[in-house]
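Lab meeting notes turned into a lecture example. A postdoc, R.K., suggested we walk through two folding results consecutively so the class can see how the record format repeats. The first protein's sequence and structure tokens come next.
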Amino acid sequence: MDTSFHYDLAEKNLNFKLRERLVVPPGIELKGKGLFNTVSGNLNYSGTLRGVLKTRPEVKDEGSLPWKFGGGVHVASSEDQPGKLPAPQLHASVKKVVSLLEGPRTVLSSKAWVNVDPKAQKFTDRKGSIKISHKWMGFTQRQDLKLSAGLDVSWPTKANEPTSTPFLQVRENNWALNYRNKHWFCTYDL
């Protein structure tokens, strides 16, 4: 289980994040994450159970990864209805990572996903992300450094056009400084 602290620099509050990903052959994936706000006591969570299909096996130390298609069920807490058990939604996703230079240090990653409410027969979530990342292994004697920049794209169900917001991350082993959704925050992985 991945755990980390998130400190929001604008709101001055500390959040505790848990994340887990389990993969069971042949291609069943269970992902869950939760974010606990230590100031308000709110817990936001989401989980996805999906089947995953890859176009080819992954090759270790290769920057490019095969196309990854997923389909399954998704649940997520709602800030509008705290404490209410969320209804499951249908989920579809696609992801691709391409090495821009020789080796795995500079990569272009793209992913997109949709969630559909089967009762209402409408999209509840349409999002995507594209980023470029570069890793400096051995930046100092004990530190690696990773710089990522990209765009989050969201297409709300009531909007005619998608909206995009830039993001940036500078990561050193466990520490990261992030800019996302128009504000800065720090993370520390435990």
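The second example is placed directly after the first for contrast:
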Amino acid sequence: MRFTSGLVLLVSALSVAALAPRAKRQTTPPSAGDDSGVIISPSDGTSVTAGDPFDFSVQNSPRYSSICHAPWTPVHVYLLAAKPTTADLNSTFGFSEYLYYFGDYILNLDGIPPPPNDPTAPPPPILTTPNLGTPFSGSTVYIAVVEELSQCDPLEDHADYALDSRALAYTE
């Protein structure tokens, strides 16, 4: 009788654990400077001047592409005063404090149209450096890309986003 009762309790406990929702981890992709990151260009240390264009290129996060292959991925592009961390992101995968917001774009990986509420434009190949004012001239600013991975299977063990950044030398 004890063996049967113990077995029933063990099976019940395992069943409850198996049905419980798994928490999603929030981790960062390769660090800045790692050429396997989300940002392809600009590279770390690129000099940018207010009003001038600079090359911009992003790709689907290599760290998560083997785990999550969605047909499209929303990305959000910011210019920040400090090197970003995942702790700086708010509940909508954005930054509450930023110097400039370049916008929302979509990486279309399979040519399938994105859902109606997602942005539809791909990231532009060139961005223009905003005028941040004299206080920032000669300082390091950071271009940051937040890639949403919300199209992934929720049972997969992945983050909700990938964050990558590059340091830029800003002059006015």
